[in-house]
Amino acid sequence: MVRYANVYDIPRINELGSLLNDNFRMVNNINEMLEDKYSKVLVYEEDDMVVGFITATDLKETCDILSLVVDPKYRNKMVATNLLDYLISELDENLKLITLEVASKNIAAIKLYEKFGFEVVNVRKNYYKDDDAYLMARESE
Ligand SMILES: CC(C)(COP(=O)(O)OP(=O)(O)OC[C@H]1O[C@@H](n2cnc3c(N)ncnc32)[C@H](O)[C@@H]1OP(=O)(O)O)[C@@H](O)C(=O)NCCC(=O)NCCS
User: Does the C-beta of 13 come closer than 6 Å to ligand 1?
Assistant: First the structure.
């Protein structure tokens, strides 16, 4: 089940976020995001536990997906698909563009985003410590 996150979810979101980035807690202040009207933080709950989350900056006509992580034990069970579906359903009717950055070696995530109609629109060389970043975008019909 997907729902909006609350303050009680923060430790678990940070724990999952550290799988993506050692500095997740430092660069993503979930507490502030929960208070910020331009931020969206959604979690997927199963077995009474948060097993995945997605964060985004929603500026109505554009939305930038910042992070998406699923607990390794719950991968390949459509958790990320459900989080993305829910996020997109919550976006404004005037939405024109969704963007995100992903490491070029992150095949699982790239396949997921391609399934949702995202395309690589730019490459940011050496954006990560040992990888390039793909800027991916999906325009609204
Ligand atoms: C990428 C990630 C979020 C996918 O989560 P998930 O819940 O396992 O994804 P889903 O089960 O919803 O998979 C949906 C689609 O994604 C793609 N996909 C997911 N895992 C994949 C893998 N290991 N290899 C190739 N494609 C994969 C497939 O297209 C899949 O559709 P299919 O099952 O019809 O082939 C998850 O692997 C993860 O948390 N990775 C670490 C964090 C990360 O890299 N986040 C993204 C960058 S911000």
Answer: no
